[in-house]
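[stage:ingest] chain + small molecule (NAP)
[stage:ingest] validated
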Amino acid sequence: MTHKQVTIGKTDVQATPLGLGTNAVGGYNLFPNLKDEDGLNLVKAGLNNGIKLLDTAYVYGLGHSEELVGQAMHDFDRHSFALATKGAQDFSSGEQVINNDPKFLTAQVEASLKRLNTDYLDIYYIHFPDKQTPKAEAVGALQRLREQGKIRAIGLSNFSLDQVKEANADGYVDVVEDEFSLLHRDHEADLMPYLKDHQISFVPYFPLASGLLTGKYDQDVTFPADDIRSQISDFQEPRYSQALKAIDAIRPIADAHQATVAQTVLAWYMQDPLVSVVIPGAKRAAQVEANAQALDVTLSDAEYQTIDTAFSGFKTITSGKSLADPD
Ligand code: NAP
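[stage:predict] done
[stage:export] tokens:
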């Protein structure tokens, strides 16, 4: 079955509205007990099940996620899917420093190309803004790499609206990746409409709220200290109980489509006019296979609205400090 395609920004990069996040593919610094084999299998499962955007980053396993994604995609036609990665983390001093210096970003892109074993990236994101580099200069470095054919679309991640405006002074920015889910709706009021108006695609991360929005959790949940979910505010009260209550409103809609809660939530994002590609992560191939079926779920306007309303309280509940904050 051929699925709908979306276009990234003002480029000719195409993808399905459902991608695959790979921070748990080799991301040993983010999650405990990951196996390389599971990571390789889940990336292949994505590509075998019609997913056409892979999202990785240098910082996921400090290059290991990119290496595994590079290996997994080896048997697939490189032109048949889009590949996104990110960089800005400089560990040369022994600790993580965010660095958007044009020379550093250029070297990061070259290193990512090697690890991914490819000669172009469909999207390269500046993973976090630094404090010192003029934003348009950082983006200018990526524009030169685009002119050399090494990247096809320029992305920003974790930039505020003002920082996006500054970075896009020359109109080179094509896509922004930031946290957005039914539980984290802060960007709906300003950032997302701005991007739409300027033909910049929006790619939300943590769309399943790290698994919470799959509907698989009940009132009693704990995570080990080395699992990033142990620090996430969504799993702490009162937010956690509020989320469980809202998730219950999705269940009858999921049942009506013979779909899971996760598939229904992913379908909701794909019908949000302000969202371009939603990139759920996964730990195992079976999760990816299940999530890919969301490409075949279409909600009615009334169902879309019911879910929107069930989670409308989260438009005003502030998210607190984001896990993605580098410091
Ligand atoms: P997520 O998509 O909200 O949640 C993914 C997790 O949910 C999986 O690892 C899995 O965890 C669980 N899950 C997924 N599908 C499931 C299913 N069908 N049934 C049951 N459980 C399921 O969070 P994320 O993976 O952390 O974020 C998505 C992607 O966004 C990342 O992979 C990464 O590429 C990107 N990201 C980007 C940034 C940035 O700064 N740009 C920051 C964070 C993430 P369990 O099996 O352990 O429950």
